[in-house]
Specification:
heterodimer, A: mainly alpha, Flavocytochrome C3, Chain A, domain 2, two-stranded antiparallel sheet, 22 helices, 6 strands, 4% strand, B: 201 residues, mainly alpha, Multiheme cytochrome fold, 2 domains, extended
């Protein structure tokens, strides 16, 4: 075989051709390299925010500049027009709707005012307005700890990152009034850099840790429920430091949580009539949802409460968090082919049946509380009353757990009906015990009082509502505007 | 074999005066090649990790829609988009598709709305049947092929199962917020730092 030298010696054009070909390959390679570099740079901008969002940015409108679709849909949580049979967004006065609750919460702040929840955008305004938070002023810091702010605002993770959760909880609610002005929003669930879902409240992380679970291993689908579970859960304020704690150490069922509270001998308050050391359930939405069929089929909260939506051909997750009954097309009908009316009927059917049990239990409990009061008044002693109070505690815990959740009777109708049935059983057992005490002390029968309205029920308990409302009015007119002004002045100094 | 290689090397040997420049050029070429190999993450194309498909960002909508779908848990891109009849067919198809993608992308010729090509359709349809053939044998999916569908004889799986697995809305312009979170952290640093000592700084 001839050497290349010989070959090109006879045919010089072959060398030229080889040269041109290698130049072309070189150009191609260079082009590819520069394209890879350019495209990599492009990718960094294609999916990043338009403006940098600070690590502790609690102003939702600043996030809204980069995420207009999500922000605009979040703004719709201000809308209060929707009403379903048992819920809605109207902030309905539930004590007026069902005045038995006033008696059930006698001696506790919930008997002052209790409303159906509003959308997220109302969180800060509502907590200032509600009678339960009292009327703090210059001399009186008011009844509630700062722990009450924990779930109301993206200002909370901002403050906690600065002062630590323990010191945050330790303050009074009124002390942080000027700091907390933005309602539940972006920073509560998102990482400002990557926009990934993120748990911003330590209580949930700590609860996972105590159960031996690592929340940092949660999948994206789980995170679509866990960001909700930062707040929509049963909780209590632990110890004098009012440390926000989830009672999940041995499990999340109504019995397991009750056992947890019994073990640490915890009670939220002592009932003003029956003197029962009672538990107040908060809103165990996440726990109850887990016991229902939708969770068992792998759905997350966001699947129905923040369904995918399109606008102008752009797909995004609807941040108008609300009852799926107001958006059946995008929530239920993604899986269920039935028409909207039929699906709505299916929901109401379950809710009505659960509500029947609920009202029965409430009647039993109102009677039990009043009869227990009569027993005390006629000289029954604490040894006689101990089994009665234990039964009332168990019955009322089940009633409250079933009631406090926002969508319990839909999320897990069978579980809720079960706990209400147990509650009725315990309540009636308490009344059997009471009947024995009545016979022994010859106590006359207690008439069921007229509690047909909230006002009558509150009057029965001797509550001075006029004073509470007048104080609140002064607070709303004098103190709150100062908080808002201070907060706005602080924010005005931040980068706009 | 070795002697033949040696003879080839002899044949390729440049004239003595050119040896050093040629060696240098070969070195430059190899170096440049290595940089390209590294920068373009070329090794990742040899494996099945779906992250390789978003080396170039224009496939991000397809990636995220898949990741959120019922196929997102256990099924990779390659399970559907390359043939599995034998390993040679798999890598030949990968190389062919890859060359096409690289060429279009380098020259800036990619479409805003990426659509599947007919050869790719045939592969996907085969792969639907490959996994689901047993599940739905009463329907007789084995006979559903692109060739037959093109002649108006029968349909392809996704003509009815239109949301599988990428949804209907997945172009570059329609899902600008489809971010890829390969390393999402579920809690902020300050919570992690205070966990050990009861929420105290």
């Amino acid at each position: 075989m001839k050497s290349m030298q010989d070959l090109t010696g006879k045919r010089p054009w072959l060398a030229a051709l080889f040269f041109v070909a290698t130049v072309a390959v070189g150009i191609g390679a260079g082009l590819l390299l520069s394209s890879v570099a350019t495209r990599k740079a492009e990718a960094r901008f294609a999916y990043t925010t338009r403006t940098d969002i600070a690590a502790d940015e609690s102003r939702n409108e600043i996030w809204g500049r980069s995420y207009p679709l999500e922000y605009e849909s979040w703004k719709k949580t201000e809308d209060t027009t929707f009403q379903s049979e048992f819920g809605g967004a109207r902030n309905t006065d539930l004590l007026e709707k069902d005045p038995r609750m006033v008696v059930l919460w006698a001696g506790y702040a919930f008997s002052k005012e209790y409303n159906h929840p509003h959308g997220h955008a109302w969180a800060v305004k509502d907590i200032r307005k509600i009678l339960r938070t009292g009327a703090p002023n210059d001399t009186d810091k008011g009844p509630q700890p700062a722990t009450c702010w924990t779930c109301k605002s993206p200002d909370v993770p901002r403050l906690m990152a600065k002062m630590g959760a323990a010191d945050f909880y330790h303050k009074k609610w009124s002390e942080l009034g000027p700091e907390v002005i933005n309602p539940i929003g972006c920073l509560d669930c998102h990482d400002p850099k990557t926009m990934a879902l993120r748990v911003s409240r330590p209580a949930l992380v700590e609860a996972f840790q105590r159960q031996g679970k690592d929340i940092t291993k949660a999948s994206h689908a789980e995170m679509r429920s866990l960001v909700c579970a930062q707040c929509h859960v049963e909780y209590y304020f632990k110890g004098p430091g009012k440390y926000l704690t989830f009672p999940w150490d041995s499990g999340t069922s109504v019995e397991k949580i009750e056992a947890y509270y019994d073990t640490i001998k915890f009670s939220d308050w002592t009932h003003a009539l029956s003197r029962t050391p009672l538990l107040k359930a908060q809103h165990p939405d996440y726990e109850v949802f887990q016991m229902g069929i939708h969770a068992q089929r792998g759905l997350s909260c966001a699947d129905c409460h923040m369904p995918y939506s399109t606008q102008g051909g752009q797909k995004f997750s609807d941040h108008h968090v609300q009852s799926p009954l107001n958006n059946i097309a995008n929530s239920c009908q993604v899986c269920h082919r039935q028409d909207a009316d039929e699906l709505r009927r299916n929901v109401y059917e379950r809710q009505r049946k659960v509500d029947e049990e609920n009202i029965r239990l409430e009647d039993v409990l109102v009677r039990a509380h009043l009869e227990a009061k009569a027993a005390w008044d006629h000289g029954a002693d604490s040894i006689e009353m101990a089994p009665v109070l234990a039964l009332i505690r168990r019955a009322q815990w089940r009633w409250d757990f079933a009631n406090a959740g926002h969508g319990n009777s839909f999320h897990a109708p069978v579980e809720i009906a079960r706990m209400l049935a147990h509650g009725i059983g315990f309540g009636q057992e308490a009344r059997v015990e009471l009947a024995r005490i009545f016979a022994k002390h010859q106590i006359p029968e207690v008439a069921y009082p007229d509690i047909s309205t909230k006002a009558k029920a509150q009057e029965l308990l001797g509550m001075k509502m006029d004073k509470l409302k007048a104080d609140k009015q002064v607070f709303l007119e004098k103190v709150v505007p100062q908080w808002v002004r201070a907060g706005q002045e602080r924010e005005a100094k931040l980068p706009q | 074999m070795l002697t033949r290689l040696f003879r080839l090397a002899l044949w390729l040997r440049p004239p003595p005066g050119w040896r050093w420049p040629v060696l240098g050029l070969i070195g430059l070429t190899l170096g440049l090649g290595a940089v390209i190999f590294h920068q373009s993450k070329a090794w990742s194309y040899l494996y099945d990790d779906p992250a390789a498909c978003i080396n170039c960002h224009i496939m991000v909508p397809q990636y995220t829609t898949w990741k959120h779908s019922s196929h997102g848990r256990d099924v990779t891109c390659n399970d559907c988009h390359v043939p599995h009849s034998n390993i040679a067919a798999k890598y030949f198809f990968k190389a062919k598709d890859g060359m096409r993608h690289a060429t279009l992308f380098t020259l800036g010729m990619e479409e805003q709305v990426i659509r599947i090509t007919p050869p790719s359709m045939a592969v996907v349809q085969e792969n639907c049947v490959r996994c689901h053939g047993n599940l739905n044998h009463p329907v007789g999916t084995d006979t559903a092929t692109v060739a037959r569908a093109m002649h108006g004889d029968g349909h392809l799986c996704w003509e009815c199962h239109r949301e599988v697995p990428h949804g209907r809305v997945n172009s570059l312009s329609s899902v600008p917020n489809a971010r890829v979170q390969l390393e999402a952290r579920t809690i902020p640093d300050w919570i992690r730092d205070t966990l050990a000592h009861g929420g105290r700084k």
